[in-house]
Amino acid sequence: MKKYLYAAMLGLAFSAIGVEAFAGSATSIVVQSTTSTKNSGFYDHLLPIFTKETGIQVHVVAVGTGAAVRNAMNCDGDVLLVHSRAREEAFIREGYAPRRYDLMYNDFVLIGPGSDPAGIGGQKDIALALRQIARTSATFVSRGDDSGTHIKELELWRSAQTDPSQHSGDWYREAGTGMGATINIAVGLGGYTLTDRATWINFANKSDFTILSEGDEALFNPYGIMRVSAQKCPSAKIEEAQIFIDWLISDKGQKLIASYKTDGKSLFFTYPK
Asked: How far apart are CA 266 and CA 271, in angstroms?
């Protein structure tokens, strides 16, 4: 009830003062974000529309999920948008956000060179694909940066009952870099890596690389969005942060997210209502 009352009051406020008057306030918020949304062009697609309608400027700090969470805990942002459910739930449990909102989802894919030295092409079972990479000592490039993708990758290695850290510096290379840079390293070394699909679709330097394993349920990649707690971060722009979240999860926001495509391919999907 409070949510709908808030939305109604917000609508009345916009009607009364007009978007132009609101825009004149030059209000801004900071979003601590995963790199995949930035790399995919997600913000370039959505933020100009949001700012035009509300007058709220959005400044995005795109880092790995782990760093984004830590930054938000330090009150260096008003909104947190990441893709590691365990980290998000811990963030809420510790009182840094009142709730998490389902925003959108896509999936992870395992990419590698066309020569496919580990012979995993077409293997849907990601655990089997990773075990085959380990058995053949084929080069695998990990982000190694505590990002959402890195967290998922380590989870997948555990499901494959394999500890790649025992081979660090050998066939397992920990880059400590963002997704784009990690893919570039994998391409340079002719190795495999895990990436979110949106980044891969938008990635230009594909060389002969292709998706070799996809479609396993374990590769599901949900994105959550939260505003920081006013109790933990008294200086946070709570009202503006909530306006941003409500806009993204509204019918219009969800349609804009679902309509974002590159070369006719959808990068993110929204949840049915």
From this structure: 14
